[in-house]
Design a protein that fits this description.
Blueprint lengths: L12 H13 L7 H14 L3 E5 L2 H11 L7 E5 L4 H9 L3 E5 L21 E7 L8 H11 L2 E5 L7 E4 L7 E4 L6 E5 L12 E5 L2 H10 L23 H11 L2 H18 L6 E2 L7 E2 L5 E5 L7 H10 L5 E2 L8 H4 L10 H9 E4 L7 H16 L1
Parallel strand pairs: 2-3, 2-4, 4-5, 5-8
Antiparallel strand pairs: 1-9, 6-7, 6-11, 8-9, 10-12, 12-14, 13-14
Helix pairs in contact: 1-7, 2-7, 3-4, 3-6, 8-12
Bound molecules: pyridoxal-5'-phosphate (PLP).
């Protein structure tokens, strides 16, 4: 029998209707009305002025980093516990990624360690919301302000997540992930909360930056003579068909978030009283969208994530291991990055953490089968 998958997208009638419209009208390339609509609606939803759709989330990060005009040797601070796309975007822009360890509760960047990583070469901070839980943005933005650093937000796992800004002031307010910093980046890969199959977007409030990102992702065609190029560009364009899918999903975003939150709530209920498991946290200043439901084995048990994953697979449950920190990536270390860097929290998360089936298509019966399998595997 096929195991319960970690993710299955949930597509509906509206997606079909819009995609059929693309096929019927012949608007299947990156020219087409769904693109601009998708860009505007997603920017509006996140509380931003401009959106530039691209072909995937990695390309969004690459375009955003390229738009910062980094010089060789410039440094950009990232959490070590993230996907390699973050580090790649910096390396491809000719700059140097510098890593910060994770907060043991939320698994996002430990912002208390941020200021100590700033050097005269630091130009930017990449804020990554991990598994749907926002980074603690206020302290991060304070460090950025103090040292004049640009902030790029990677909200690829946090569509619709919210963060309470100004919690220590008399005017706190909730803001959406993707509304902070100079630019924010999203992925719309099939396992993200909003999907276009493959896809991504850069949001910003700065028209010049939006133009710059659009140009970088569209081969830097000349504004006067189209085929006269002044800069090295990329083809990062999204198609109208992808945008059609995305637009249909934005209409259902509240329902999608609701569903993710209820999956998390139910898992958390199912795992009550298991001392050997750390469950996803939600800080009082955060509204997580629980992109993936992660669990971390406690140090008291000898079992590690690889062992638990194989025990679960035997019981018909697919899982994914947690990220391997950037400072432990062979390919990055071979570039001479992160010499002697240790990040004990992220190293432990990698050894002890994995995530469970969390897709929108997950049924209640499947979820409770997962709970039973985890309990059974841990009791052995
Ligand atoms: C998925 C993801 C990306 C990359 O997106 P792709 O569309 O797969 O290229 C970037 N950052 C984070 C945090 C992600 O989870």
């Amino acid at each position: 029998m096929r195991p319960i998958p970690v993710n299955e997208p949930l597509l509906a009638d509206r997606e079909l209707e819009y995609v059929v419209e693309c096929v019927r009208t012949g608007w299947v390339s990156s020219a087409g009305a769904f693109i601009t609509k998708f860009e505007q609606e997603w920017a509006d939803y996140c509380g931003r002025k401009y959106g530039v759709a691209v072909c995937n989330g990695t390309a969004a990060l690459q375009a955003a980093c390229a738009a910062l005009k980094l010089e060789p040797g410039d440094e950009v601070i990232i959490p070590t516990f993230t996907i390699i796309s973050c580090a790649l975007a910096i390396v491809y822009a000719g700059a140097v990624p510098v890593v910060v360890d994770s907060d043991p509760l939320t698994w996002t960047m430990d912002v208390k360690q941020l200021a100590a990583k700033v050097t005269p070469k630091t130009k930017a901070i990449m804020a990554v919301h991990i598994y749907g839980h926002p980074v603690d943005m206020d302290p991060l933005l304070n460090v950025a302000d103090r040292y004049g650093l640009a902030v790029i937000e990677d909200a690829a796992e946090a569509h619709g997540a919210q963060y309470l800004t100004g919690r220590e002031t008399d005017k706190p307010g909730w803001k959406r992930a993707g509304s902070f910093g100079k630019m924010s980046c999203f992925s719309f890969y099939a396992n993200k909360l909003i999907t276009t199959g493959e896809g991504g977007m850069v949001l910003t409030d700065d028209l010049n930056l939006a133009d710059k990102v659009r140009s970088l992702g569209n081969l830097c065609f000349g504004p006067v003579q189209r085929f006269r190029h002044e800069e090295l560009g990329h083809n990062f364009r999204m198609t109208n068909v992808q945008a059609a899918l995305g637009l249909a999903q934005i209409e259902r975003i509240d329902e999608i978030i609701e569903r993710k939150r209820s999956v998390a709530e139910e898992y958390t209920r199912g795992f009550q009283g298991l001392p050997s498991l750390q469950l996803p946290a939600e800080e009082s200043w955060a509204r997580s969208v629980y992109w993936m439901y992660g669990i971390v084995l406690s140090d008291d048990t000898e079992m590690n994530a690889v062992h638990l994953a194989s025990e679960l697979l035997r019981r018909g449950i697919e899982t994914r291991p947690f990220f391997l920190g950037m400072h432990e990536q062979p390919v990055l270390k071979r570039l001479g990055l992160f010499p002697g860097v240790a990040c004990p929290v992220a190293e432990r998360l990698h050894r002890k953490g994995l995530y469970l089936p969390s897709g929108l298509g997950l049924t209640k019966a499947q979820l409770w089968k997962v709970v039973a399998a985890v309990r059974d595997a841990l009791s052995k």
